[in-house]
Amino acid sequence: MGYGGIDKSEDNLTSFGNVVNMLGANEQQTAANEQANEYFQQAGYATQYAAEQAGMEQYSVNLAAGAQSEGFAAGGVNPGEGTPLAVANTTRALGQIQVNAIMQQGALESQLEEEQGQISQQGGLEDVISAEGQNVTNTQQTKISQAVQNTELLDNLLTGGLLGGMNALSAAFS
Predict the structure, then answer these.
(1) According to the model, what pLDDT value does residue 4 have?
(2) For the residues of 74-107, what is the DSSP string, one character each?
(3) CA distance 158 to 147
(4) What residues contact residue 4 under an 8 Å CB cut-off, 6+ apart?
(5) What's the whole-model pTM score?
(6) Quick check: 14 and 142 in contact, CB under 8 A?
């Protein structure tokens, strides 16, 4: 039994429990970081995919505008002025709106994946902080138990010492 009535195995058990808490929290943090990395990777894929889709859309728009111009030219109309030019410009403008929408959607998907990754990382960090807080609580509870038992021991020693001394004095004067 340790000083003040606390068995050292209780101290060791608290320390062991604290280590187990931290190991579990570290494993949770590692898993959260792995999940976060997957989200960050998905964010990169979303941006890359959007760029590829936008490039294909731009290519389709260019083909359509070119086909319109060729159609006008084949019909004997100058494609570089008037209504044919307006049609080609409108086609390109609408195509650019579509390309921009694809890129914006990709950016939003990428941002969502990034935020989910950050949330995952934060959750892992919160697991570690929670475990550290629990460890501090466990350690403090053990110290409080030790202090209470030490106080009780001192009270018993003082009380026993005074009574023993008083009994000795009584016996001496009787």
Answers:
(1) 47
(2) HTT--TTSHHHHHHHHHHHHHHHHHHHHHHHHHH
(3) 16
(4) 146, 147, 149, 150, 153
(5) 0.63
(6) yes
Domain ranges of the chain: 3-173
Helix-helix angle 82-173:8-74, to 10 degrees: 180
The kind and range of the H/E element at 6 are none
Classify residue 117 as exposed, middle or buried by CB count within 10 Å of its CB (0-12, 13-18, 19+): buried
Cβ count within 10 A of residue 133: 11
Compute how many other C-beta atoms are within 10 angstroms of the C-beta atom of residue 29: 19
Condensed to tens digits (0 to 9), the pLDDT of residues 2-21 reads: 444 455 666 777 788 888 88
CB 39 within 8 A of CB 113: yes
